[in-house]
Each structure stands twice: as structure tokens, then as C-alpha cells.
């Protein structure tokens, strides 16, 4: 039943992408800025991309578990609001490195630190301007078969293995080897 | 992996105590579709567990005229504390004594370690078992697509999408 763990939704121009647009490896993360396991995965995913951005790209989608994480939704909206001003990843990185400080005033301070237009940020946050985008990501996550946070797909296959650097590096190497062999056979 | 329960036959009836110690029968849910979720244990070391995901999408699940009933071999006191910690509003039933009896009825009891498999049974409003899914590895929870695909097969696409997601 391989179909169960295949990413169904395509990556589009509306997605947040870190790394080269035509990298042969795509890691899609469904994450929640208040989830400690996402916080632990953050440095690993970033090291993988930053070491080899021509080969590996990271796509981030929101999957806020609001029932147990009261700051999951506002932080996701804050990342979107920063994204609207061209600073999605800057906000994303600050949120994942400051998971113990995610209150409204913290978000404003981060917006200021990365040079956002603060008035616009505050206005859009209080209007819930980007809630629709966050909910849209959540719905894609249901379709793709999110089974916890973070859920990571590597080239459309759900990766349920350990999320340390060595394990993920090995998984990506194996995927690249298989795909090369398939191309040679074709 | 298949369970011993046959699809398109009546789902095995059971009565188990919920977290408050009150008896809950499967047949209490006649008229509603039921997602019967067996899970290995309360307090497993995953913060956003399978049950949190179910809670987060509960309004959408109810859009399919469905209710969620979760079962594990933990006792009622554990269930109560776990439900409170994870803020779960659907019933957690205790299959504690006779230990794992209902999991056995559904063919998902693990004799070697005394817990159940991670499994989902989809039971329609007339009490018929329509579909089932058993995890190959109890550490890996089902993707939410499994739940919604199962409900879709019973109920079709709901008229009105829930506003939650």
C-alpha cells in the first residue's frame, strides 16, 4: 500500500522554497512552529539544504496543531505575513530558534529585527490576513497524509525514519542512487 | 496487514468503560459512522500524536456523520489524565480487563507485548464494518488521508466542508 505514503499535492509557485528551484531532491515539511519535534528537525533540514542547495531544496507548509499549541496559528500567520514582505525564511528561522518566546510582542520584535514594515505586519496580523493560506496548507497536509508534526516527504515519499542528520543524509543518498539507476534503465 | 474481522459483516459488539468509568457500547453509535481507533498506549513519547491529529480534524470528521472512538489497553485513570493533557474531547475506552479483549475480538492484540496494534476500523451507521487499516509498525501512525479516504468511501463527499481547516 505504497500509495498511502505518497505526497499527492504538487509543489507550486505559491510554496515557500529554500534551495534551488530545480534541485533533484525536494524535502517537503509540514510543520508547526510551537512543536518541539519540528524545532529539533529544523537545524538538520537546514544543514542538509545549506550544504548542497543545488541538490536539495526544502519546501515548508504549515500544519498547526492548535488544540495543544496555542501559538501555532499566530506564528504560522506571522511567517506568512513576513513572506508577503519577502522575508518568510528569516521569520521561519527566528520562530524555530525561539520556540519558548512566541507571544504577540515577541512576533512584533522579530518582525522589527528582520526589517519588516511593522505597521503593515501588525495590521495584517490583527486582521488574520493570512489565515486562509495557513488553512490551505493544513488541508493539503490532510490530503498528503500527514501523520504527526513534523511530517517530511522526500521526493514525494513520506519519510518516517529518524530525523537526525546522518539518517536523513543516508536516506537522500539512497533516493538519488535509486533514481539514477531508474534513469539508466529507462 | 489484515485483521481477523471481515468487511461488510456486522462489526463485533463490545462494551468498555470510558475515561470516566462509564460503559460505552459500540451499538450506542448506531445511526452514526464510527472511526474505531486502536492505539498502543497513552503517554507515548510523541507530542503531536495520532490522537492530537484526530482532535485537530474532529470537525471535519464529524462532517461525514462520524464519531471517533479510541481504544487502548490503558486503565481509565491513565485515559483521564492523557485526555486532559492532550485536550481530547472524543472518548478513550479502556480495554484493560480482561486485558485486550476487544483488541483480540478485532484481531489486533499483540500477544508478545500485551498492547494493540495501531489500527483503524470504519463502521457505518448500520453497524457494518466497511473498512480497516492496520499499521505495519505500531510506532508509525496512520496518515490523515487514511481516515478521510475511509470516511469518503462510506459517506461520499460531505455537502459542507467544516470551517476548521
Highlighted features:
heterodimer; A: 186 residues; alpha+beta; Glutaredoxin; B: 165 residues; 24% strand
Report helical residue fraction of chain B. 10-25%
Q: What is the class of chain A in the CATH system?
A: Alpha Beta
The oligomeric status of these chains comes to heterodimer
Flag low-confidence runs of chain A.
none
The strand order across the widest sheet of chain B is 1-10-9-4-5-6
How many helical stretches of chain B?
Answer: 5
Domain count of chain B: the total is: 1
The largest β sheet of chain A comes out as: 5 strands, mixed
How confident is the prediction overall: mean pLDDT of chain B?
Answer: 91
The CATH superfamily of chain A turns out to be Glutaredoxin
**For the record, what is the CATH homologous superfamily label of chain B?**
Glutaredoxin
Q: What fold name goes in the CATH topology slot of chain A?
A: Glutaredoxin
Task: Estimate what percentage of residues of chain A fall within beta strands.
Answer: 5-15%
What does this protein structure show overall?
The complex is a heterodimer of chains A (186) and B (165). Chain A has 7 helices and 5 strands; from the N terminus they run ββαβαααααββα. Chain A has a single domain, classed as Glutaredoxin (3-Layer(aba) Sandwich), CATH 3.40.30. By secondary structure, chain A is α+β, with helices and mostly antiparallel strands. In chain A, α1 (36-51) links the parallel β2 and β3 (56-62). Chain A is elongated. Chain A has helices at 36-51, 72-84, 88-97, 104-113, 118-126, 131-144, 165-185, and strands spanning 16-18, 25-31, 56-62, 151-154, 157-159. Chain B is α+β, with helices and mostly antiparallel strands and 165 residues long. Chain B has one domain (9-22, 29-153): 3-Layer(aba) Sandwich (Glutaredoxin), CATH 3.40.30.10. Chain B has 5 helices and 10 strands. Chain B has helices at residues 50-56, 58-62, 76-86, 101-105, 144-155, and strands spanning 9-10, 15-17, 23-25, 33-38, 66-72, 92-94, 109-110, 115-116, 119-123, 128-134. Chain B has a 6-stranded mixed beta sheet. In chain B, a hairpin with a 4-residue loop joins β7 (109-110) and β8 (115-116). Chain B is globular, with a radius of gyration of 15 Å. The A-B interface holds A 4-5, 8, 32, 35-37, 65-68, 135, 138-139, 141-149, 151, 158, 160 and B 46-50, 52-53, 55-57, 60, 86-87, 137, 140-146, 148, 165.
